Amino acid sequence: MNFIDFSDVKITGGFWKQKQDMIKNTTLMAVYNRFSETHRFDALKCDWKEKGEYEAHIFWDSDVAKWIEGAAYILSERRDAELERLIDEAVDNIADNADENGYFNSYYLTTRQDERFTHRSDHELYCLGHLIEAAVAYNEATGKDKLLKAMCRYADYVEKVFRTEQSAAFLTPGHPELELALVKLYKHTGEKRYLELSKFFIDKHGDNDKEKGISVYPGMFELSYNQDEVPIRERSTVEGHSVRALYLLSGAADIAAVYKDKALESACRRCFDNAVNKRMYITGGVGSTHIGETFTIDYHLPNRTAYAETCAAIALAMYSRRMQQFGNDSAFADTVERAVYNGVLSGISMDGKSFFYENPLAVDPDFNNVNPATKEKERYPITERLEVFGCSCCPPNIIRFLASISGYIYSFDDDTLYIDQYIDSVTQKEDFHIRQTTCYPADGKVKIQCNCDKKYLALRIPQWCDSFKLNKDYEINNGYAFIKNPGNTELEIIMDMPVKLVASNRRVHENAGKIAVMRGPVVYCAEAADNGKDIISAVIPKGAEFSLADTEFMLPALKVKAMRPKSESKLYYTAGNDYEQFDMKLIPYYAFANRGTSEMTVWINRGF
Fold it and tell me: Residue 217: its pLDDT value, please?
C-alpha cells in the first residue's frame, strides 16, 4: 500500500481549510513567540553559562524541531522569506554548534559534556528523531540541505556508537521516535544504513540491555513503562507511556512493511486491536492516567482523570495510518478519523493560540480542590488551555500534524485508488486525478470528480455510517465500497448522518448506565455554559429527538429535551417525582473549554 504524500494533495475548502488557515496564520507564530520567550531557540546557540538567564532542557530541541517541521509543511505550499529566515537561523545554530562527530544536543553540549549517551531517560535520541523529520521536511519544501546534512552526520555517529561499537550505556532509545524518523530518512536519501539502524533498534527493543541499564527512571516505573518487558514481536498489548508505545509501534510497522516481516506485522496488528478495542477513549484519546502518562489495563477508562495526551491521540493516528501499509481495512482509517476530529482537535483552542496537554472527558471545577486542609491534593487536568507548557511537546506537534493532514486522505496499490478520508481536496498523479467537494463532517454528502486508470476506486464507508447512497454500482470489502473501472466520471456518496447514542462495554464501569452522543465522526459533550450547573446529573430520555442548531464552533450544536433532578436543599430525600425537563445543548467535544472554565461531560445518564 502506498500513500499519496501531503505535498501532492491540496485541501481546497471546508472544515480542514479553515483549520489549516488557522495553523498557518495564527498558531505557527504564536508557538514561535512562546518558544522564543522561553529561550528554546536561544538554547540552540549552546552559549548558556552557569549564571546565565536560562538553562536548556533535555527535550527543548524536539520542541523546536517539530515547529520547524510544521513550518516546512506550510512552506511547501507557499515560500515565505521571513519564515525561512527564522528557520535558517535555527538551522545555523544547530549545524554550526554540532561537535566534531556531528553530535548535537543543546542540553548536553552546555551542561554535561562527558555524559552523552549515558542516561537512557534523557531524550537525546528522541530529539535526534524529531530533528531528522524536520530536516527531511525542510529539504523537501525548500531544497535547502544544511540541516539534512547535519542530521545525516549525526545519524552516522549514532550508528557507530550504538550499532557498530555498542559503546553507549544503553542500546535502544529511551523515548522512541528515532526509529520511525530513520525510516523517513532512508526513504528520502536512499541510504539503506538508516533503515538498517532503525531495524536494529526495533529488533533490540525489549530484548536487550539486561546488563546495560535497561530501566528508564529506575525505582519509579516497571519495565513495561518503556515497553521493555518483552520483544516487540512477542507483544500483544499496548503498555506503558502511551506516546512512547505508539511511536515505537509506528516504527515497528514501518520496518515490518519494508522488510515484509510477518511476525512483526502480526504483533502490530495485535497491539492495534488491543489499543482500539480495549484501551481507547471514544474520543480517540489514549492513556488513562497521569502516573507515567500510561496505558493502564483493559477497559480502565476514567473520565475526569483521563490523561489522554494530545500527542498520544496524534501518535494513535500516525500508528493507524501506518497500519494501512498492510492492506486497507477501514478500521485503520476509522481510527484516524476518530482521533483527529476529537482527541487531537480538543488539544487546541478555537482561536489557535492555546492548548491542552491532557484531554479529560469530564470536568467539574467545583470539585477539583476537595482537600483544603491538606498539603497533598487530588490531581485533575487543568480546565483552561495554556499558550505554553513546561513540557510543550503538544503545541508544535499539532502544528506539524494538521499542516500535513492531507497526507492521510488518499492511498493506492496496483489495482485500487482509496479515498480514506472525506476532505475537500484535489490530488493528481500520472494515472489518476481526484477532486472531492464536501462540507464533511457538517453533513455526509461528498461529490467526487474522478479520472482514474485504476481497476477500482474504493470509498471508505465509516464505522459510524449505517446507511448511504452511492450513484454507482459497488461491492463492499473490508469497509470500502469498490467501484469497478471508474474511468472519467462523477460520483456522489451521501452518508446518512443521524445523531447516534453510543454505549460502552459493560467492563467500562465508569460509564455504566450512560451514553455518549455522536453525529458522524464527531463526539459531542454538554457544558454548564449552555446547560447550568450539575450537568453530570442530567438524563437523556429513551427515544429523545435531537435537532441541529448553529454554533460558533464550525459544526452544528445538538439540542434535545432532557431531564435533570429538581433543585433540593436537603442532602438526602425520598425519591419520587423529582425530575424536571430542560433544553439540553451539546457542542462538539473538540470545542469544550473555549468559553472559560465550565463543567463538562461526554458521558450522559441514559433513560430507559
Answer: 78
Which pLDDT value is given to residue 549? 97
Please check whether residue 454 is in contact with residue 436, taking contact to mean a CB–CB distance below 8 angstroms: no
Where do the structural domains in the chain lie, given as residue ranges? 38-210, 411-495, 499-606
From CA 14, how far away is CA 21, in angstroms rounded? 11
Say if CB 283 and CB 245 are below 8 A apart.
no
Determine phi and psi for 458, rounding to 5 degrees. -120, 125
CA distances from 238 to 27, 266, 296, 316, 506 (A): 32, 14, 9, 11, 21
Residue holding cell 450522559? 604
Q: How far is CA 83 from CA 17, 28, 372, in A?
A: 21, 10, 48
DSSP H or E stretch at residue 562? strand 557-565
* Residue 206 exposed, middle or buried by CB count within 10 Å (0-12, 13-18, 19+): buried
Residue 120 scores a pLDDT above 50: yes
d(Cα 122, Cα 60) in Å, to the nearest integer?
11
**Site of grid cell 483549520:** 19
Q: Residue 494 pLDDT more than 60?
A: yes
| Apex 30 CA angle, 25 and 35, nearest 5 | 140
Q: What is the pLDDT of residues 153-196, one digit of tens each?
A: 999 999 999 999 999 999 999 999 999 999 999 999 999 999 99
Cell numbers that stand for 50 in this block: 552557569
Q: 442 burial class (0-12, 13-18, 19+ CB within 10 angstroms)?
A: middle
| pLDDT band for position 55 (cuts 50, 70, 90) | confident
The pLDDT value given to residue 113: 86
In DSSP terms, 445 is beta-bridged to: 494
Helix, strand, coil content of the chain in percent (nearest 5):
40, 20, 40
List Cβ neighbours of 531 (8 Å cut-off, separation of 6 or more): 538, 582, 584, 585
CA distance 201 to 181: 12
Q: How confident is the model at residue 50 (pLDDT cuts 50, 70, 90)?
A: low
Alpha-carbon distances of 329 from 1, 333, 344, 472, rounded to whole Å: 11, 8, 22, 21
**Contact present, 482 and 452 (Cβ < 8 Å):** no
Instruction: Quickly count: other Cβ atoms within 10 Å of residue 261's Cβ.
Output: 18
Residue 210 has pLDDT above 60, yes or no: no
How many helices (H) and strands (E) the chain has is answered by 15, 22
Q: How far apart are CA 74 and CA 19, in angstroms?
A: 13
The H-or-E segment that residue 335 falls in is helix 330-338
CA atoms in the 13 A half-sphere facing the CB of 237: 14
Q: Cell numbers for 438, please give them.
A: 464536501
| Residue 34: its H or E element | helix 28-37
Residues forming beta bridges with residue 469, ordered by sequence position? 494
The C-alpha cell at 159 is 550508528
Pairing of strands 499-502, 362-363: unpaired
Nearest C-alpha neighbor of 463 from the set 276, 309, 240:
276
Q: Across the chain, what does the average pLDDT equal?
A: 95
DSSP states of 42-67: GGGG----TTSS----TTHHHHHHHH
CATH class of 411-495: mainly beta
User: What pLDDT does 212 receive?
Assistant: 52
Q: What is the pLDDT of residues 259-288, one digit of tens each?
A: 999 999 999 999 999 999 999 999 999 999
Tell me the three cell numbers of residue 553.
464552533
- Angle formed by the axes of helices 81-97 and 60-75, nearest 10°: 140
